[in-house]
Amino acid sequence: MEPSVRKSKKKLNKSWIVVAALVVLLGGASIYYFAQYQHLKSNPQAVSNQETNALISQVGKLIDLPKSETPTIATVNDKSKLKGQAFFVNVQDGDKILIYTTAQKAIIFRPSEDRLINVGPIAISSSSQSTK
User: Fold this and answer.
1) Is residue 112 within 8 Å of 89, Cβ to Cβ?
2) What confidence tens digit (pLDDT) does each residue in 91-121 have?
3) Whole-number Å distance between alpha carbons of 99 and 74
4) DSSP-derived 3-state class of residue 16
5) Rounded CA gap, 50 and 79, in Å?
6) What's the DSSP call for residue 84?
7) What pLDDT is recorded for position 50?
8) Which residues are CB-neighbours of 108 under 8 A, at least 6 positions away?
9) Which domain holds residue 95?
10) What are phi and psi of 58, to 5 degrees?
11) Residue 54, domain member (yes or no)
């Protein structure tokens, strides 16, 4: 065989090896993400609990939190709806609000800056469950 034919066959073999490696990697990634999707689909509460525990841990590094209860957590999506309420004066979209009903405490936490924005007592009316 001529040297140029051997070189082209070697290049062709290398190309097939690269293509095969990519197929294997993409196949593995597809299987992994499909398994993750199935896990989320079968147990969405587990993911929510993980996120809640991570947030509580993060905020707990900045302030002592009530140990006897799990907070209700809300995310601020539209800060304009909170205008006129003194507690929410410095709130931004994306802030997390932790509401401890038994301890009657509310905490505004900004994950993007890893800092507390406001902490205060709350009063929850039994008929409307709204915070004041």
Assistant:
1) no
2) 999 999 999 999 999 999 999 999 999 999 9
3) 8
4) helix
5) 26
6) T
7) 87
8) 87, 88, 90, 91, 95, 96, 97, 116, 117, 118, 119
9) 65-121
10) -65, -45
11) no
| CA–CA separation, 61 and 115 (whole Å) | 10
Q: Quick one: pLDDT at residue 5?
A: 59
**To 5 degrees, how large is the angle CA 19–CA 20–CA 23?**
90
Per-residue pLDDT at 41:
83
Q: Is residue 109 part of a domain?
A: yes
**C-alpha dihedral over 42, 44, 45, 47, to 10 degrees?**
120
Residue 48 belongs to a domain: no
Give the number of residues written for the chain. Answer: 132
Amino acid at 76: V
CA distance 80 to 86: 13
Domains in the chain: how many in total?
Answer: 1
**Residue 131: what pLDDT?**
47
- Tell the residue number behind the tokens 């209860």, with chain if given: 69
Interatomic CA distance for residues 105 and 59, integer angstroms: 14
Residue 14 within any structural domain of the chain: no
Positions in the chain whose pLDDT score sits under 50? 128, 130-132
Residue 126's φ and ψ, nearest 5 degrees, are: -70, -25
